[in-house]
Amino acid sequence: METRSITAQVPMVPRMTEDPAALVPELAAVSAALFKVTGNGSVPRSTISLVQLRAGQIVGSTYLTVLHTGFLRKAGESQERITSVASWQDSPYFTGAERAALALVEAVLQPAAHGEGERVSDELYAQAAEHYEAQALATLMFAIGQVNFFIAVALIAKPVPGRSFTDPWN
């Protein structure tokens, strides 16, 4: 595989020329169901967006990073909180519950250190369970799954960053 020079211009066109949602119209129902599940109110929408922003950062998706940064801005989140998601462990801007959620998404998306142990340890699960009741913890789990569903689209099809979530191919 050919690598691009670090100084090369990145094109502002999607890699996949046809809209995947148009190719597979059943996606609309799946996407709507995922948004309904994560929007049940048991976890603040801002927490879900912080988690999904962190997921985009971890996998190196400009599309997801720009998308979730925009969602957080529209929700009135401060620039300090948005910017410090990448370094949340050292940031004073997050609650214990948000830290637990960010730790969960990192555990799911990053291999265990040195290939040892489970990605989501019993200790991490217990810490998250201290902050989230059963429905909220399940919702958080599905929010991480939701962004993982869209990670494949973001990395394979490469929609244009900064365009509307429902209109990246126009």
What's a quick, concise take on this entry?
This protein has 170 residues and is mainly alpha-helical. It is 56% helix and 0% strand.
Any overview of this molecule?
With 170 residues, this protein is mostly helical. It is built from eight helices and no strands. The longest helix is centred in the last third of the chain and has 23 residues, at 134-156. The mean pLDDT is 89.
Residue-averaged pLDDT: 89
> What does the main sheet amount to?
none
Shape: globular
The portion of residues forming beta strands comes to under 5%
- Report Rg: 17 Å
Structural class: mainly alpha
Gap between N and C termini:
28 Å
Helical fraction: 55-70%
Secondary-structure element pattern, one letter each: HHHHHHHH
The tally of helices reads 8
The count of strands amounts to 0
Residue stretches low in confidence (pLDDT < 50, at least 5 long) are: none
Summarize the SSE layout with pairings.
Elements: H1 20-23, H2 27-38, H3 45-59, H4 62-74, H5 79-83, H6 96-109, H7 122-131, H8 134-156
Helix pairs in contact: 2-8, 3-4, 3-6, 3-8, 6-7
Output the keywords.
mainly alpha; globular; 0% strand; 170 residues; 8 helices
